[in-house]
Give the backbone structure.
Amino acid sequence: MITYEIDEEPAVNGVYACRVASGIADGMLEDKFLMYYNGRWTYTGSDQGYRGLVPGWIGPLQRRFVY
């Protein structure tokens, strides 16, 4: 089992599986892939910052796959 890191920021830039607040129902959580870069969460493939809180994350995830 892989567990979420909670209450701390990542030490490495990269793409993470993040647990964030759901936009559908208050108090519910959902998973999103976000990029952490230089102390800031952004959407993957974009320079747009993620506006919500990221209370939990797993990663960084491997992005390159070598055959």
